[in-house]
TrEMBL record:
Principal location class: membrane
Protein name as it appears in the record: Glycine receptor subunit alpha-4-like
GO cellular component term of the entry, any: plasma membrane
PANTHER family reported for this sequence: NEUROTRANSMITTER GATED ION CHANNEL
GO molecular function per UniProt: chloride channel activity; extracellular ligand-gated monoatomic ion channel activity; ligand-gated monoatomic anion channel activity; transmembrane signaling receptor activity
Assigned keywords, A-Z: Cell membrane, Ion channel, Ion transport, Membrane, Signal, Transmembrane, Transmembrane helix, Transport
Transmembrane segments annotated in the record for this chain: 231-249, 256-276, 288-311, 444-464
Its membrane topology: Multi-pass membrane protein
InterPro entries cross-referenced by the UniProt entry: GABAA/Glycine_rcpt, Neur_chan_lig-bd, Neur_chan_lig-bd_sf, Neur_channel, Neuro-gated_channel_TM_sf, Neuro_actylchol_rec, Neurotrans-gated_channel_TM, Neurotransmitter_ion_chnl_CS
Species the sequence originates in: Euphydryas editha (Edith's checkerspot)
Length: 474
């Protein structure tokens, strides 16, 4: 079949030996009739890419647009005729408007991939192979549990729904190389699914309501990679930090290296994920997880600081307790020395050689030295005893934190004491408990930290999975 056509304004098309001429009263500016139905068919060949930063999707599609043109007819004995692509300028075509379209480029090799065909039932069909870029509004708050839904509307820019209606028409499905129909496209990060919405949609703009045919694009993210790259390593870092509770607190370098290295690793992971992930107005789902893991490791480090401070405080208490015990022993010994001294006042000073060494006995001249020693000892005891009673004014049971630490029994609380005194006593006992040499706080933390992290994990996944399910369209 050979085509030859002169200038466009001649409106004459030569097909083989026949001259096909448009009706004399034909107007390309008037639709074929009132309430003309335009059928849209889209066959997706390939999803070229998804740009999350620009919120764009690039597709290779075959677009088919058809409508009934009662003013045109096919020559007798021919089921259809293929019209030259330039012939579209002579007939009425719908002013198709794709709302989310950014760019469109018709594919071409030797010539453009576009066809115009007129069937015997007076239906005009336009087919185009093109690469299109669609703008898609995306919300990344649930990243990487997010499911993006993009709606592409095909409508008329000029004609309202009283003049032109748009509906979907099923086209021949596209089959892959394996002979299976492509219902979805798998990308490194997404699974892309296309669904035609059969319901009627209306767009309000300009002079009235415009009919639209809608194509739904669903982007489901592949979660396996994020679980292996982010969630699993961060969870292991938190679990490793619990091992510091089993290290003896006195081994400061080993415990500090373990906690600080784990903390810096989580901070680096958070920075990498934030840089490589798309922007969002709020904290993303994965950022909440990494921040929480960082906080758990930081609390483990803070717990070690408290233990170190408690150990230092406990040693100070041990020295004070030893001073008090020595003072108490001196007080108990002072009356005995006084009695012995009184008895020996009436006895002259004498000495007995023992092994060539003279061993003197107490004399009257030693009385001043003994009294001075007794006075100083009693004064130290009184001062230490007053400090002990002041520090332990509010009575409660105090744990034995070390062999030399204070052992205090339960005594009635003094209701007349001030709030600051009671608070100081409680803080004093708390710090001594933290600095216990048998690791009381570490044992407590080794139970509490795993339970809290397990509860957080349940709450986190329950909350965000329900939010992701709620965000999915019906």
């Amino acid at each position: 079949m050979l085509f030859s056509y002169p200038a466009v304004m001649s409106q004459i098309l030569y097909i083989d030996q026949y001259a096909y001429q448009l009706p004399t009263n034909y107007s390309r500016n008037i639709p074929p009739g009132k309430n003309t139905t335009v059928y849209i068919g889209v066959n997706v060949n390939r999803v070229s890419g998804v740009d999350e930063n620009k919120e764009e999707i690039t597709l290779d599609v075959f677009l088919q647009v058809s409508w009934e043109e009662t003013r045109l007819k096919v020559p007798p004995g021919m089921p259809y005729i293929d019209l030259p692509w330039e012939f579209r300028q002579l007939i009425w075509t719908p002013d198709l408007y794709i709302w989310q379209l950014q760019t469109m480029r018709i594919l071409s090799v030797l010539q453009e991939m576009a066809s115009l065909r007129l069937y015997a039932n007076r239906t005009v069909s336009v087919s185009i192979g093109a690469t299109i870029t669609i703008k898609c509004e995306m919300n990344f708050v649930l990243y990487p549990l997010d499911v993006q839904n993009c709606a592409i509307d095909f409508s008329s820019y000029k004609y309202t729904r009283e003049d032109v209606r748009f509906e979907w028409r099923e086209v021949a499905p596209w089959f892959g190389l394996a002979g299976e129909q492509r219902r979805e496209f798998r990308l490194p990060k997404y699974v892309v699914t296309f669904v035609t919405d059969k319901s009627k949609h209306i767009r309000n703009f300009g002079e009235g309501e415009h009919s639209a045919a809608r194509l739904q694009i669903k982007l489901s993210r592949e979660l396996r990679g994020y679980l292996l790259e982010s969630y699993l390593p961060s969870s292991l870092f938190v679990i490793i930090s619990w091992g510091s509770f089993c290290v003896i607190p006195e081994i400061v370098p080993g415990r500090m290296v373990l906690l600080v290295t784990t903390l810096l690793s989580l901070v680096t992971m958070f920075d990498t994920v934030s840089t490589n992930s798309p922007d969002a107005l709020e904290l993303k789902c994965i950022e909440v997880w990494l921040i929480s893991c960082t906080i758990f490791v930081f609390l483990a480090l803070l717990e070690y600081f408290v233990v170190l401070f408690g150990i230092r405080y406990d040693k100070s208490w041990s020295r004070r307790r030893q001073d008090l015990r020595r003072a108490a022993s001196a007080v108990q010994l002072a009356p005995t020395l006084h009695i012995n001294h009184t008895q020996r006042l009436s006895t002259p000073v004498s000495g007995t050689p023992q092994g060539g060494v003279f061993s003197p006995q107490l004399s009257v001249e030693d009385e001043g030295l003994k009294q001075q020693f007794s006075h100083q000892t009693i004064q130290r005891l009184s001062s230490s005893d007053r400090r002990l009673r002041r520090d332990n004014k509010v009575g409660c049971e105090t744990r034995t934190v070390s062999k030399d630490s204070p052992i205090l029994d339960t005594i009635p609380g003094d209701t007349s004491g001030s709030f600051l005194v009671r608070f100081a006593a409680m803080a004093d006992r708390g710090v001594m408990f933290c600095g216990a040499q048998h690791g009381a706080l570490d044992k407590f933390a080794l139970m509490v930290f795993p339970i809290c992290f397990f509860l957080f994990t349940i709450i986190y996944w329950t909350t965000y999975l329900s939010e992701a399910h709620r965000a999915m369209p019906d």
